[in-house]
Amino acid sequence: MGERSKFKKTIIGSQSQVKRELENLIEHYKVDEIMVITNTLQFEDRLKSYELLASCL
C-alpha cells in the first residue's frame, strides 16, 4: 500500500483534541498548509465547523 492509504481520514473531538491531531499531522508530513472538508448538509453547520476550527488554530 502507498503512503496515501495510511492517511487518517477523520479527525473528531474537542477543539483541543482536533488541534493536537492537526498539529501531529503537520509535524509528521512536514507541511505548512492543510485542507479541510466538513461534510454537513446545512450551510450554517458547515460555517460553524470552520469557525470552530479557525478558533483552535
Automatic annotation (TrEMBL):
InterPro entries: Luciferase-like_sf. This is Uncharacterized protein. It comes from Halalkalibacter alkalisediminis.
